[in-house]
Amino acid sequence: MNTPVCDFLRAYRESGAVRMHMPGHKGKPLTGPEASDLTEIAGADELYRARGILRESEENAAALFGSARTVYSAEGSSLCIRAMLYLACLRAAERGLPRRILAGRNAHKTLMTAAALLDLEIDWIYPGKEEGLLSCRVTGERIASCLREKEYMAVYLTTPDYPGRMSPVGEISRACRGAGVPLLVDNAHGAYLRFLERDEHPLSAGADMCCDSAHKTLPCLTGAAYLHIGKGAPESFAAEAERAMALFASTSPSWLILQSLDRVNGELAGPLPERIRRTARETRELRKALEGRGWQCAGDEEMKLTLCPKSFGYTGEEAAGILRGQGIECEFADPDYLVLMPSSETGEEDLRRLREALEGIPRREPVTERPPELKRLERAMSVREAMLSPAEVIPAEQAAGRILADPCVGCPPAVPPAVAGERLDEAAAAVFRYYGIRECAVVRR
Ligand SMILES: Cc1ncc(COP(=O)(O)O)c(C=O)c1O
After folding, report:
1. Residues 91 and 139 in one domain
2. Structural domain total, the chain
3. From CA 217, how far away is CA 19, in angstroms rounded?
4. pLDDT tops 80 at residue 127
5. I want to staple 341 with a disulfide (CB 3.0 to 4.6 A). Which of 152, 272, 331, 421 is the partner?
6. Residue 160 maps to which CATH number?
7. Could you tell me if residue 298 is inside a domain?
8. What is the CATH number of the domain that holds 434?
9. Distance 257 CA to ligand 1 centre (A)
10. Is 372 among the domain residues?
11. How far, in Å, is the centroid of ligand 1 from the Cα of 76?
12. Centroid of ligand 1 to alpha carbon of 110 (angstroms)
């Protein structure tokens, strides 16, 4: 029998590609795999009743991140997001609050799957008109004003988002605290932020809970993530955190992933922060050099390089294709963006290859096609109702008038054009066309 996955991985390994994408270890060997792949045997502890070596390791991570409690996930931030929202639901139930959250529209689709599981109502904060379709920078003032108007069980933010935009968590957390509403942050892209010269981690800025995908920006195996509970958070969050994770998690966590989380603690207490700062510095310099040559960049995240290549004459996909031709694989490309993710493990030689490849791209007439405007869609059903309804997959061209049953479409990169339960219209169909979305699941009539 053929082994297509093994073959693809071998070919990619042997190609020597510059990995401008996740995971943060960049393919550099960590430890040998199978020999360390265990289960919850005596002495190995139990992940969601951690009292032994796992608890000790989690406490080390908590000390490094400055949290009241850190719980490991071997199933990415996706698991932590469900757990965070469940914890907020428990608190809401105790206080008789509605299961309603206020969220920035640049949320990852896991928010929608969590909303379906927990039957959450989501009030969206949409991007301002001047921000275009794919951005959603939220301010403390905006949050404070929303919290004055309605009762919410939590505020949920995604920062940094996929293209690397960051919201001011400090002022937002003050607004939330002022209103007595917990702030939950999807910090999947920002585990490393804690270790920059100026700590930019959401927990340090006052978030009550956040998830970090260690695998995205730290040298950890794919799937490695943290659920962090802040020191100022309601006590029930830390007390119930393991139970919340266990509710959604597999009972067979990967010990290889747990080992990589433990190993990175040692590195974070040692030389890794310096390597992170070096990469952040080099990324900043590269961004500056590219801007000097006329490239337009997006986002303010330190260790991510997001180009808006249209002003230089290319779509994001075209620019990604040029890099690919030179053995450089990006994290993400769409018509407007090219997202590159160096990490502490990106060597000087790889950054030099990236720089030369980008500097070698000739400037052309700007691409003027803009993303179509998307009006807010009518909420016809709750996320849960839509996602649990019988559905059919239809061509996106025929979707106008129908209710979306997929968690969302077009996510990543950022603001989902439509989420489950919204009634699609012609404008949504135009957006789907623009992003190459050919089909979607809609609620069966
Ligand atoms: C913003 C954001 N949040 C959450 C996730 C889910 O994280 P994970 O893949 O670690 O489950 C992703 C994944 O890409 C993401 O981009």
Report:
1. yes
2. 3
3. 12
4. no
5. 331
6. 3.40.640.10
7. yes
8. 3.90.105.10
9. 16
10. no
11. 7
12. 8
Of the pLDDT bands very low, low, confident and very high (cuts 50, 70, 90), residue 414 is low
Phi, psi of 184 (to 5 degrees): -110, 135
pLDDT band at 313 (very low <50, low <70, confident <90, very high): very high
Exposure b/e, 401-412, CB count within 10 A at least 16 = b: ebbbbbbbbbbb
Please identify, by atom number, the ligand 1 atom nearest to the C-alpha of residue 158.
1
Can you tell me the distance from the alpha carbon of 266 to that of 304, in angstroms, rounded to the nearest whole number? Answer: 24
What residues are in contact with ligand 1 under a 6 Å CB criterion? 76-78, 108, 110, 158, 161-162, 186, 188-189, 213, 225, 412
Task: Tell whether the model's pLDDT for residue 32 goes beyond 80.
Answer: no
Rounded distance from Cα 331 to ligand 1 centre (Å) = 13
Choosing from 189, 215, 226 the residue with most ligand 1 atoms within 8 A of its CB, the one to mutate for a pocket test is 189
Domain span at residue 77 reads 34-268
**Helix, strand, coil share (%) of the chain residues, nearest 5:** 40, 15, 45
Residue 1 falls within a domain, yes or no? Answer: no
Å from CA of 78 to ligand 1 middle: 6
Decide if pLDDT at 373 tops 90. Answer: no
